[in-house]
Write a structure and sequence with these properties.
By secondary structure, the chain is mainly β. β34 (478-483) and β35 (488-493) form a beta hairpin. The two termini are 24 Å apart. The chain is globular. It is built from 7 helices and 53 strands. Strands 22, 25, 26, 28, 29, 30 and 32 form a 7-stranded antiparallel β-sheet that branches. Strands 1, 4, 5, 7, 8 and 10 form a 6-stranded antiparallel β-sheet that branches.
Length: 740
């Protein structure tokens, strides 16, 4: 899989199928190895003699001075290594070289090295450098999965790239107590597609025995009442040292008004990086927030390392859930859960990763006797008179639970208990995780609700794990809306299996099925990363009833199907849509002056045969339609929009209402002409001649966009509008995060 935004070619990035993207720079020869992670190939850099050896990219890549660039690679060998960026002038002269820190130790297993650096003045191009220092000749060092480009940061992170990653320096952090701050490059084997994890880690060192902590300098703004999630990978020095992260809120004067802590429960031995999460709702007077981390009970010289540090709006464990993240995922404890009756004891599972289906922890329920207990979540606001669904995921340590009942308890505005729903009871067939759900209509006067779980233990010392708890209003699994004014249909799919797959068809009146386009191209066995999928179908026809057929495959491959209701998009008969399938933000509705008169060309050759009256004509296959569409634009804005639509030269979709004698058509537009409709200088109307040639439907083109990108992401990266204007040429470039 190609790394998004990589300046390097796929061959250079993955060293597949050859090493043509790389050249030896110092004391080295290059060959292709096997056993890579991003494809089978990898780059083998072999030392000619003892000492440092270097390899570089063959190509140089255009860059802009003053801009931050980022590179990383996965590597393995018998010595330590580093990665660098070689800055070149327009003539190819070396201006400077930026190097990462060297790894702390060597490792024969794949691990990550990385570097972020500001392009110096005078540099116009860059190359990636790979370096290791070997103790002898003919020693191999291995490289793979190489990236050069703009910084890769977590979308939605309120913290800037350097605070998240510490790839430039450690300036995004300050000490709070008993600590010093530095950067280190330990050997860490990140997943090959974990592009936000780099080589440099933030290192907090305890100065003396006792508690030690550090704090992010940045104070991003927050919205009171909104729930936020902070997380980071933590690498504690020893299991006995309590490592933690903390989400802090501040008022408009900078005074800390709330702090919520989440403590890591590392496995034994604690040798890796462990993602620890903490969530909290911003209090009413909150203006900003930050994240802190530290060690309790540290010894002098102990080091806590952090990587990929994020503050973001808290996600729901299920789309539409009204339960706070802390109550649904148990990452920092049991939150608002209680045991109103029975002997069961509840606590967060331990250690990290031992029992979880969402995040790294779950709620551990233990019953000392064979009896019935009731577990209850915190109360949350609900709407009365509508259907709600409560769902938990449960897994038994051993099968000593007679039944598990999921239900909802309702309350009115005066906190009066209105009773619980009937609930649904389950018996776990194995010790695997199971999703257990129950639907109930809230009483008309209900304003609050809590999820209740009634567990019946059949033996003493029974243990049950509960995770990913959600409560949401039941909405249609499949919903479709016609947005005729903007020329597209919106299809909403709910309660999908995460990590499963989905295929979506548009079905015409005659039963013809056409795959619908998504971000990755046509949606055919697309992997699901969320239980909610919203699709904007900009290729739905005008004036023709259609519906959608959906095939859903769960993780095990089992198939289920859904279908939507029928919708019809409308359009004025005098207008037509011209659309770019890959860039729907450019789509525009135009006023038709004259529909095309079609021609269909054909390749033919005529041969005269002596003695025969008629020529022998050899023909190829008749080609598609060709004609000239004449349209008007009625304002300068429309004129500029049509130029933008046509500038890329991409295959377009022409759509009109039925009655023009031709169905929707993908076309390539040739040389255009734009003329005024009168000699008046102030005339804004233009008449356009668009020569069109019929094309096949583009099947690999995906709908462009920056998934999840919001104005907050722009605000985090750019302090002023001038900074934004220096990076992006157009507002579309801002939307797509396409930097010049």
């Amino acid at each position: 899989m190609a790394i998004p935004g990589n300046f390097l070619s796929p061959t250079t990035e993955s060293v597949d199928p050859n090493t043509s993207g790389w050249a030896a720079k110092l004391n080295a020869t290059l060959t292709k190895g096997t056993g890579g992670r991003n494809g089978d190939g990898c780059l083998v850099v072999k030392s000619v003699a003892a000492g440092e050896m270097q390899a570089r990219t063959v190509s140089s890549y255009p860059i802009t001075p003053g801009t931050v660039y980022y590179c990383f690679a996965d590597t393995a060998g018998v010595s330590t290594e580093r990665i660098g960026i070689r800055w070149l002038s327009a003539t190819g002269t070396e201006v400077a070289v930026s190097w990462s820190m060297t790894t702390l130790t060597a490792s024969a297993n794949w691990h990550r090295v990385s570097l972020a650096a500001v392009a110096p003045a005078g540099a116009t191009q860059a190359q990636v450098l790979l370096s290791s220092t070997e103790t002898g000749a003919t020693v191999n060092h291995y490289w793979e999965n190489v990236y050069l480009g703009l910084p890769i940061r977590t979308t939605g992170n309120l913290l800037p790239f350097n605070t998240e990653s510490s790839e430039l320096d450690a300036s995004g952090w300050t000490t709070v107590v008993n600590a010093t701050i530095s950067r280190q490059v330990p050997v860490i084997n990140w997943a090959v597609t974990n592009y936000t994890a780099g080589g440099h880690t933030l290192a907090m060192t305890a100065v003396a025995a006792g508690n030690a902590s550090i704090l992010a300098v940045d104070r991003p703004t927050v919205t009171p009442g909104l729930e936020y999630l902070a997380y980071a990978y933590l690498q504690p020095p020893v299991v006995t040292a309590q490592a933690w992260i903390e989400l802090r809120f501040y008022d408009s004067l900078g005074n800390q008004i709330q702090a919520t802590r989440s403590t890591l429960a590392p496995p034994t031995p604690a040798t890796g990086m462990y993602r620890q999460r903490v969530s909290a709702k911003a209090p009413a007077n909150a203006a900003t927030c930050s994240v802190a981390a530290g060690l309790d009970g540290a010894s002098a010289g102990q080091v806590l390392r952090l990587e990929t540090i994020v503050i973001t709006a808290a996600p729901g464990v299920q789309a539409g859930t009204v339960l706070p993240y802390a109550d649904g995922s148990f990452e920092q404890g049991i939150a608002g859960w209680t045991v109103p009756s029975g002997v069961a004891a509840i606590a967060r599972s331990s250690p990290w990763g031992s029992a979880a289906i969402d995040g790294s922890y779950s709620m551990r329920v233990s019953s000392s006797t064979a009896t019935t207990s009731v577990l209850r979540s915190a109360r949350v606001p609900v709407t009365g008179g509508v259907n709600w669904r409560a769902q938990i995921h449960a897994g038994a340590d051993v099968l000593t639970w007679t039944s598990i009942t999921v239900r909802v308890r309702w309350y009115d505005a005066a906190n009066v208990d209105l009773g619980a729903s009937t609930g649904t009871s389950y018996a776990l067939p194995t010790t695997s995780w199971y999703g257990l759900a129950s639907d109930a209509v809230a009483p008309a006067n209900a304003t609050q609700a809590a999820v209740e779980v009634v567990v019946v233990a059949s033996a003493a010392s029974s243990v049950l794990f509960v995770d990913k708890v959600a409560l949401w209003q039941v909405l249609p699994l499949t919903d479709v809306t016609a947005n005729s004014e903007d020329g597209y249909a919106t299809l909403t799919l709910r309660e999908l299996p995460v990590d499963g797959e989905v295929t979506v068809y548009r079905v015409a009146q005659d039963g013809t099925r056409t795959l619908v386009r998504g971000a990755g191209g046509l949606i055919d066995r697309q992997i699901l990363t969320s239980d909610l999928l919203v699709i904007e179908d900009h290729e739905a026809p005008m004036g023709v009833p259609v519906y959608y057929w959906i095939e859903v495959y769960d993780v095990g491959g089992s198939r289920s199907t859904r279908s939507s209701s029928t919708i019809t998009l409308t359009l004025d008969v005098n207008e037509a849509w011209l659309k770019d399938p890959g860039n729907p933000q450019r789509n525009m509705r135009v006023l038709v002056q004259q529909a095309p008169d079609w021609q269909r060309s054909i390749e033919q050759s005529a041969h005269v045969v002596r003695g025969r009256r008629n020529k022998v004509v050899l023909s190829g296959r008749r080609q598609g339609l060709e004609g000239e569409l004449a349209v008007w634009t009625r304002s300068d804005d429309e004129r500029r929009a049509l130029h933008q639509l046509l500038d890329s030269g991409s295959t377009l979709l022409w759509q009109a209402m039925p009655g023009m004698g031709v169905t929707d058509m993908y076309v390539s537009v040739g040389q255009i002409s734009e003329t005024r409709v009168s000699r008046l200088a102030q005339e804004v109307w233009r008449t356009w001649s668009l020569p069109m040639t019929e094309q096949d439907m583009p099947v690999t083109v995906g709908v462009s966009g920056a998934a999840g990108r919001t104005w907050q992401d722009v605000l985090v990266e750019f302090a002023t509008w001038n900074d934004l204007m220096n990076v992006y040429a157009t507002w579309e470039d801002v939307f797509l995060d396409r930097r010049g």
